[in-house]
Amino acid sequence: MVYILQALNDREELVLLDGKKSRECLRSENVSTKFYCPQCHGEVRMKVGFVKIPHFSHISRSTCESFSEPESAIHLQAKQQLYEWLKGSHMVVEIEKTYCNLSQRADVSVVHEDHEYAIEFQRSQLAQEHWNHRTNGYKTHNIIPFWLLSTDCISPTLNQITLSAFHQLFIRYSEALHQFFLLTYDVQSHSFVILEHLLPLTKNKFFYTKSTYEISSLEFPQFPLTSPKLTASTLYTFRSYCARWCGDRVRYGKGQRDPLLCDFYKEKQSIQLIPPWVGLPLRQGMYLKTSPVEWQSYVFLLLRKALKRERSIHLLEAVDTITQCLNQKKLELRVMQTPAYKDKIRLVISEYFDLLGKLHIVMKENDRYMLTKNQQYTCIDHIAHKKEVYSQFWKNAAPVVIEHFNSVSEKSCKNS
Fold it and tell me: Which residues are CB-contacts of 144 (< 8 A; sequence separation ≥ 6)?
């Protein structure tokens, strides 16, 4: 940690607690020297105990924005470990760098190939507004914010994990592999823990696979990822969640105050008779926080309405429909560390239509789409026939859905 050292001869210099000095030496300096915060210039004291690593603390309750967040022992250890790791790679590294023009302080600053990164290790809850403020502050000064979540904040089960809205702020996107992942750091094992192949089941529940790498085996800012693979087992579980969604929506919905149920009612359509191709897993589907069954239902209603008029719809009509639903709060976007995520809606719809084309649900001409007439998987005439229709659909569709998910790329979506 860096603070101004005020010596007896009024000479100022910066002090770095980098673990090189013994606790005895630090205690000796603490008695004979005064220390001041470089941000607010308030007096601070050096705390050198037997449990936590040595650190500084403001003497009086401070309103210093850059130093206002209390730090746990895990936070202090993480900064020290990250600093030592990056310094060992012969990069320009600074621990607790203060950006006075931003009134912000990065846990660790590092320069790599002429790009400066501000590493922010986060363990405590942080409001989205504060996260956005700090992120945008760095970006406006050409500094790359690198948010890193503490591994002990999450509790994954075998292959599913629940991530709060706060946790989801840390989700990243790999342009190379077209997949979403969550990067965390574990202080106890000195390891990066990566939750890969994130596939949303609900607003907060995800499928995932986990990879662990010792910090000494990696070089910043490269983190190894593997290509996403949708398995038959994962698809089956995903389908089960979607199947329960319809019944739960009717059972626990808001009735006449439920916008989706009202839209189905206006179209004289029962939500319990939606076709089996509403609620398909998509690689780009992460951008929409609402259940895939829900947002794909709005696309289904749009296609069905067009079929009644014997017309096709343009890709942008579907994009506009989802955008309107977002503006009307019928649907939600997932907030992530991805640039211009709202612009990704077109990619989501493109991928969905591409898959529906492979399943022969829609016919495509240029950028226009139309439901295939007399499609047995689109019109279910009675609830008694639903199970049979769904069973037959997935018997034929499962291999296609799995192949599509595992091979789809952002480039193919753009060209569709």
Answer: 115, 116, 117, 118, 138
Same domain, 278 and 395: yes
Q: Which of 294, 313, 291 is nearest to 302 (CA)?
A: 313
Give the tens place of pLDDT for each residue, 336-373.
Answer: 665 566 678 999 999 999 999 999 999 999 889 999 98
Residue-number span of the structural domain to which 45 is assigned: 2-67
Q: Name the phi and psi angles at 274, rounded to 5.
A: -65, 145
Residues 6+ apart with CB under 8 A from 316: 346, 367
**Residue 246 contacts residue 387 (beta carbons within 8 Å):** no
Residue pair 333/340 in contact by the 8 Å Cβ criterion: no
Is 171 inside any structural domain? yes
Q: Please check whether residue 300 is in contact with residue 274, taking contact to mean a CB–CB distance below 8 angstroms.
A: yes
DSSP state letter for 372? P
Q: How many domains does the chain fold into?
A: 3
Contact (CB, 8 A) for 70 and 88: no
308 by Cβ neighbours in 10 Å (0-12 / 13-18 / 19+) ranks as: exposed
The per-residue pLDDT for range 129-155, each reduced to its tens digit, is 899 999 999 999 999 999 999 999 998
Long-range pairs for 21-26: beta carbons < 8 A, 24 or more residues apart: 23/48, 23/54, 26/54
Classify 119 as helix, strand or coil: strand
Q: How many CA atoms lie within 13 A of 392 on its CB side?
A: 11
